[in-house]
Design goal:
about 350 residues, mainly alpha
């Protein structure tokens, strides 16, 4: 059993699981780009659906495992802590894209719509926590609403991409979503899709290992569930998003990079839905602690700033990155400081 391992072995298992998730995610990024070209899905949609959902799978397993064990705070903080960390990753990627501000170059209506949808999905748990504790079969009605909103939002995101009602202003720095020359759009998609599915399964297994190690940290060393969830397991399970974002930026697939983060964050809100189903002691939203609510609000603020940056489309800012990237770094840094000082 993982919980019975010594500390050195525990850290080793944690590191190996995290490394596997990171390594697998690099390959998954390339395959997502190939699938996007061959299915004509587009980088933004492939990033939001395929890449975002795949790289989030390990995090889903961590949150659901925590909720099934009765630790609501661990489940929620892992979800919302990951959303904050992954939004920060776009600011880091902005540092690497030297030609222009990443949010300027990756202008895409589908990404804007997904950001709006993400803000909506982040406000629903806050509304549930502030309202009466009412459940049906130990599931809060907001969980059903969130799942339905996510499905509807995905459908609407597809229509926004296929039939946009407006287009961003063209500039020399605007990056178009065009198939890579080496990716034959008429080639079969089955083989890359099957490999992609296998990689997703590996990430899910590693997520379970990470959840077990995280739970052991909490029980053995008396660490706060929110602290472990938001700053340890959330960050580790979010590393695929960092790697895939950086790889996508280096490949020039900017819509895939931005869409992967926003789409992954949108999918991450479903962590709370699945956790509410797994949590058998009532509404998981009413079992959240103050620190969990703080991280939820942090994710909402960071998403609002990101959306503002996508709309503003600033070309250059401080240190050649957008002002929104500077703000994202500052807000996340403050959130970490508060979590450590007042766990």
């Amino acid at each position: 059993m993982i919980s019975e391992l010594s500390l050195p072995l525990l850290l080793a298992v944690f590191a190996v699981a995290g490394a596997i998730v990171v390594a697998v995610s690099v390959r998954a990024t390339t395959l997502a780009d190939v699938i996007a070209d061959r299915t004509k899905m587009g980088e933004a949609m492939a990033g939001g659906l395929l890449l975002g959902g795949a790289t989030s799978l390990s995090g889903v397993v961590v949150s659901v495992s925590g909720a099934a064990d009765g630790d609501a705070s661990f489940a929620i903080s892992n979800a919302v802590g990951g959303i904050a960390a992954q939004t920060l990753f776009l600011a880091i990627a902005d540092l690497l894209h030297r030609r222009a501000n990443l949010e300027h170059a990756a202008a895409e209506p589908a990404n804007l719509f997904q950001a709006v949808m993400l803000m909506l999905l982040l406000t629903l748990p806050l509304a549930a926590a502030a309202g009466p504790e009412f459940t049906i079969w130990q599931i809060h009605p907001v969980s059903v609403i969130m799942f339905a909103a996510y499905v509807a939002g995905v459908r609407l995101s597809a229509s926004v991409r296929e039939q946009p009602m407006w287009q961003p202003v063209e500039t020399p720095d605007t990056r178009h979503d065009e198939p890579d020359e080496e990716n034959d759009p008429h080639a079969p998609v089955m083989r890359p899709a099957l490999i992609f599915a296998a990689l997703v399964a590996v990430m899910g297994l590693c997520g379970w290992v990470i959840s077990q190690v995280g739970s052991t940290f909490i029980t053995r060393f008396g660490l706060g569930s929110s602290l472990v969830g938001a700053l340890i397991t959330a960050v580790v399970t979010s590393l695929p998003e960092l790697i895939t974002t950086l790889v996508a930026v280096r490949r020039g697939a900017l819509q895939l990079a931005v869409g992967g983060i926003i789409g992954g964050n949108t999918f991450d809100t479903l962590f709370m839905v699945f956790s509410d189903v797994a949590y058998r002691d009532g509404s998981i939203y009413h079992a959240m602690g103050q620190t969990d609510l703080y991280w939820l609000a942090t994710g909402l603020i960071m998403t609002a700033i990101l959306l503002g940056g996508l709309i503003l489309r600033q070309r250059e800012g401080p240190a050649r990155i957008g002002i929104e990237s500077v703000l994202l770094m500052a807000i996340y840094g403050c959130a970490v400081a508060v979590a450590v000082i007042a766990p």
